[in-house]
Amino acid sequence: MAASAPGKLILFGEHAVVFGEPALSTAINLRAEVYARPHTEWLVDGASLEESRFRYVKAAVAKAKPDGPLWIEIRSMVPSGAGLGSSAAVTVATLGALHGLQGSIERDKRKWFVHRTALPPLDLVVGNTGIGAATGPLVAKVKDRVDRDPLAAEAIRQIGEITLDGVRALQRKDLVAAGKLMDRNHTILTDLGVGHPSLDRLVEAARPSSYGAKLTGAGGGGSIVALTDRPSVTAEAIRAAGGKAFIVQSDSLGVAKLG
Ligand code: MEV
Hints:
This protein is α+β, with helices and mostly antiparallel strands. Helix content is 38%, strand content 25%. The protein is built from seven helices and eleven strands. β5 (106-107) and β6 form a beta hairpin. Bound molecules: (R)-mevalonate. The site of (R)-mevalonate has 9 residues, from α3.
């Protein structure tokens, strides 16, 4: 039993999506593979399933309810802690391998509506600041601002519009327009308080060789994404500015059985 699942990037709309605005996320060509076969005891990469680093695997196993213990091996190309959804990729690949994949997404009693849209293949460079920032407090900070400040609520609405304009720009392959929208999305997120000087440094480094660049994910540290047709130049600029760079492409392949 084996399956793979992709990492992901948020191209537009993070934080605003928490308030019901649209966001655009794409699968990328970096994947996690999970292999599972019956065994005499539970083992993940030769270690105990109880280790905290395997909590996502454990949760997926609990959901899939296999008949007996399994030997599980994870091979992931998705760098962890870079905002590329590495834990989600491992979780989904585990569910895929164990045939336990469920269709509906529900969190905090809120329904999330997932629509598919066709995008052209995109060359993207992720720049990781190396600064870890937990998502929960950043989401809470934005909520606090939105509750107190009508301008912040308006900023959330503008991000929703930028997202829809961004989808349309990408669909018509207008990378110049899409890049400008990414730049604007970054400014608004920074104004909402989820920026960081190191994110600005990487965005500034990436922009001369890119159509546009913005923070991706929760912010406060974490990563930026740049849309470019010169990925190696952009990656080099990000490294020169002190970031870790990953060249990726958008991809339409979701979870897939292996073998
Ligand atoms: C974090 O990757 C994206 C946020 O929009 C939070 C969320 O949607 O869960 C900031």
